[in-house]
Design a protein that fits this description.
Length: 341
């Protein structure tokens, strides 16, 4: 009996010592974090951390617990309140999206049910670095008494840190691959010019977008024949002169025009002509198929908004390359010109 009492006293003393160590030495809070620089813009990286389903593709947990099964509930994934519940032979818990700040940070609540109950905060912080992104992934929370005692002998950083490193490496590879495979928007050189007065021969009409090719083919041919009959030579490449572009009706108010020298106007009796006055203009030299000019127009619109410019008059497309002479559409040149104030 005396031996048993001695053993109990020793055990109690050890427990008291452990508790005392936990209270005196153990840290009341913990923080584990790892960072990585990913060679992809922040807008590419952010979706991988703001969706619980996306996290499944790179988080290291399933490598360590291959029988893990996850289910989504709560708010739609990618929104505050979305919850992912997991369960495996080793652990059970859930992660909930708690806060989102677009392209800057994500906060989650991480709740363990087993092998012990706990709650902590997952943190993701993004710093844009031009075409790269610094991502810091962290886990933080309060240490209970048991965790403070265990922390005296075990390092949370040593246990969790390597897993975070593996996860970040996998996430980085996914984001960089996605960025590399995403088609890059063309970069356009926009030049400010002083455009001289122009005279265009052609019939103005409201044309459906679907009929543009036929409209060009018919009117360019008729225009070239008309000026040739009048003894006038073209002064520039055949052009589309646009007065309006209607997205709702999918129509264009335009002329499929042949440019001629203003001094030849007297020779063009009986022909429909349009005179564009001289003025300031912006020019883009688009290289490629006509179907790709939409990106050039978007770039022009963005440039005008950034520089507080407004259109003043017509928009002109000059079709510099003759498709009959150059069959490779990737080599076609189109001058896109906006008259501006």
């Amino acid at each position: 009996m005396r031996a048993l009492k001695t053993i109990l006293i020793i055990v109690a003393s050890l427990l008291a010592l452990l508790l005392l160590l936990g209270l005196l030495v153990g840290k009341p809070r913990f923080r584990v974090e790892r960072s990585v620089v990913i060679k992809a813009p922040v807008a590419v990286v952010y979706p991988h951390i703001s969706s619980l389903g996306a996290m499944e593709q790179w988080a290291p947990w399933k490598e360590d617990e291959p029988d893990m099964v996850s289910t989504l509930s709560g708010a739609p994934d990618g929104q505050v309140g979305a919850v992912s519940h997991w369960k495996s032979s080793r652990s059970e818990g859930e992660q909930e999206i708690a806060a989102l700040l677009l392209n800057e940070q994500v906060r989650t609540k991480v709740r363990f049910i087993s092998p012990w109950k706990s709650e902590s905060e997952g943190t993701f912080d993004l710093v844009a670095m031009g075409d790269s992104t610094r991502l810091t992934w962290g886990l933080q929370g309060e240490n209970g008494l048991f965790a403070r005692v265990m922390g005296v002998f075990m390092s949370m950083d040593a246990m969790v840190g390597p897993m975070y490193e593996r996860g970040l490496a996998k996430l980085g590879a996914l984001a960089e691959k996605q960025h590399a495979e995403t088609p890059k928007a063309p970069v356009y050189n926009i030049t400010a010019i002083e455009r001289p007065a122009m005279l265009y021969v052609g019939r103005r009409a409201i044309v459906k977008w679907a009929d543009l090719k036929a409209f060009y083919g018919r009117n360019f041919g008729e225009g070239m024949a008309a000026i040739a009959k009048a003894g006038v030579a073209p002064a520039a490449a055949p052009s589309g002169v646009f007065f309006a572009w209607n997205e709702q009706d999918q129509t264009a108010d335009m002329i499929a025009a042949i440019p001629v020298a203003p001094g030849d106007k007297r020779k063009l009796k009986g022909l429909e002509v349009f005179e564009a006055p001289a003025g300031k203009a912006l020019l883009i030299d688009h290289v490629g198929p006509y179907s790709g000019t939409g990106k050039a127009h978007e770039a022009m619109d963005a440039y005008m908004k950034t520089n507080n410019l407004t259109q003043d008059g017509v928009m002109v497309e000059e079709y510099i390359t003759d498709p009959g002479q150059e069959p490779d559409s990737m080599k076609w040149h189109t001058n896109i010109i906006y008259m501006v104030k």
